Every structure is written in C-alpha cells, then in structure tokens.
Amino acid sequence: RSVGSLMAEDPRRHVAQIVHRVLSLSELAGYIDRSPLPRGWMPRRGRKKDSPILLPTEDAQLLGCEPVPVGYRLLYGFLHREGGRRTETASLRWDELDLDNEVVQLDENKTQHSRWWKMGPGVAEALKVWRELRGKPAPNSLVFLHLDGSELDLGNLAKLLAPQDAAIVLT
Q1: What pTM value is reported for the model?
Q2: How large is the greatest C-alpha to C-alpha distance in the chain, in angstroms?
Q3: Do the beta carbons of residue 124 and residue 78 sit within 8 Å?
Q4: Main-chain phi, psi angles of 97, to 5 degrees
Q5: Residue 111 needs a FRET pair 20 to 30 A away by CA distance; which of 16, 80, 84, 92 works?
Q6: CA–CA separation, 57 and 153 (whole Å)
C-alpha cells in the first residue's frame, strides 16, 4: 500500500496517532521523562468535505459530452437533479421508480424510514428513454450499472469519467 492510501481519510489525525505512540514508547523506554502530550489526546476528526455540485454550465457540458457513455451521463444528471445519496442511487432499482407519476420511493435507506419524492422536470422522461435503451430490464434490476453490467461503486464519482477521455475538462 502507498503512504497516500494509509492516510487518505484524515492525515492530520493519523500523524498525531503516530507521534503520540512514539512519545509514549519513548517515555516507557526512559528516553524522555514525560510525554508532552496528555494521555488520550487526539485532534478532532476533520470535517467531511462538502459534496461538490455542478454548475448549470458544467452540467450541460457533461451531459453533452459524447465520449462519456450515456449511462454515466444519466447517472450524473440524476444525482445532480435529484440530490439522492450516492449509496441509494447505486442500489436504485426500477421497481422503486414510478415513471408515470414521476416519483422515487425508497423503502430501504440509511434512515430505515421509507421516503419518496417527486422527480425534477425531465428526469422521469430521461429514465424512460434509458429503460428502453437497456431493453426494458426486470423491475428488480439496478437502474445504473457499469458498462460491463457490474454494480456501481459511487465512492469516487470522478473515477467514472477518468478512463473515458483524459481531455474531458469541466470549466
């Protein structure tokens, strides 16, 4: 593993844990009389980064970018317009969508309370076209998949674009 992968989540806290451990061992071995850090001291966890949003011009540029497969463009458009959680979107199934009434209904989610909402303008229509392009998949199948048919991991959305074309730049 690379050093970057070890420290990816909170590098400041990770370094502090190592320094604290070295000082504690130095105290135990007698190299120093006392660690300058109080027992149990640890910096607070860093705040989570805000989820970036696409500006309208960037959204239009991405949705019209032909090197990006249409399924990925639709996924980005859905996330941008509906604001769903990435995990919920990755596991979204056709039977959770009422395309005629333009409603998303999630019975299982992070809060364990079912929730629903009306889709934004044009989203249901785009999903109807996507369903036709996919050959009318079974109701319990996933809405969004990788090009090879495997399930999506939406931990890093930018990785979906990276292999398509290095020249894709949103400005």
Answers
A1: 0.62
A2: 74
A3: no
A4: -115, 130
A5: 80
A6: 26
What is the distance, to the nearest Å, from the Cα of residue 72 to the centroid of all Cα atoms in its chain? Answer: 13
Six-digit token string for 148: 């090879």
Q: Any idea of the CA torsion for 141, 143, 146, 147, to the nearest 10 degrees? A: 90
Residues 134, 70: Cα–Cα separation, whole Å:
11
More confident position, 72 or 160: 72
Distance CA 88, CA 96 (A): 11
Answer whether residue 15 shows pLDDT above 70: yes
pLDDT digit string, tens, across residues 35-88: 888 777 777 776 665 556 677 888 888 888 888 888 888 888 888 888 777 888
Q: Which of helix, strand or coil describes residue 156? A: coil
